[in-house]
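Example record

The entry below shows one chain as it appears in the dataset: sequence first, then structure tokens.
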Amino acid sequence: MRSSLLLTEYQQQAQRTDLRRVDNPDITFPLLGLFGETGSLLSEVKKKQRDQVAYIGYEDSVLEELGDVLWYLAAVSSRANLGLDELAVNLDKSLGDWQSARAPDLCFDALQAHAFGIAATPSPAFERRLVALAGEVGLLMTDHYAGRLERNRSTLKGRLIAVLRALRDATHEAGLTLEAAANANLEKIFDRWPAERHHPSLFDEAFPQNEQLPRHFIIDIEEIEVEGRTMARLSRNGTPLGDPLTDNREDDDDYRFHDVFHLSFAAHLGWSPTLRRLLKIKRKSNPKTDEVQDGARAVLIEEGIATWIFNHAQRLEFFEGIDALDYGLLKSVRNFVVGYEVEQCPLWLWEEAILAGYKIFREVRTHRGGRVGIDLTKRCIWFEAP
């Protein structure tokens, strides 16, 4: 039974996430990506050389960057109507021995010998392989912008074969396999852009009803004056929730309304230790869950995420007109919550929760308050002006 990933299978899966292909079908955009990701791979090596002890995550970063290079190579090939298998069958052949036939059953594990595992630091041989890869990508870019590839399919194919060969050799020298990079890349891209979106089960589904986040509820937000200070107050059914909030900074930025982010996290992720604290619905029937998932540290982490994203969003008009977030931002959020139940939420769901929260925030900011409704069964949040 076949256990290795097919090159054709990987390319087909990767092609589904080439979101710009319809509007911008030529190879220029993925070529720029290929050039950029190769540079990022070299940067990982440089950072590890500079900070051998302080720089952690080198091994995972190298695997991710190798997968990203492979993705862009697959995208260039797809747009040029070339299969990765068509390139791979010629990896170790001379120009005179090239074959044009496809090899749809060719697996990644057929391309290289067994890998011995990535080293903790980059070796000189790995550095040389990466420089060779960068050189091949550079030649590909040079030929493209000189117009030498537009009508010369053989030259384009030759350049892509050389890039794939250099990528394979660099991957092997790193102690990894192209198959591992491909599988990691598929996991990454479908974490963000899945073929179908299925919400995970709510974290408190198995707990008593009085320890569950309410599946439907409404929160009123109003702006009030308290001893000359402008504050935001939350209430539910006329009962205040928590203390009124100020912006807690010198310059007015309306962070006093930031509780809408916690409401959106609850609505979309089914997670908000802060909201559990405000509603007094911690999961005390399980002492470990109460301590870890609903405890003070989890609350601080959620507040930290909200503040960190807010500082980023301010520079982007609070995500006005933006329908997709930077991958680096989402990845950083995931790193914030490692070890907590919400770590299992996919990146697309985090993106959905953040963008929905900021849509509500902009409304509340405009109207200086309002009514926010949460529906956990439909995973949505809505706004009603005061």
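Notes for this example: The chain has 13 helices and five strands. The chain has two domains: 7-192, 209-384.
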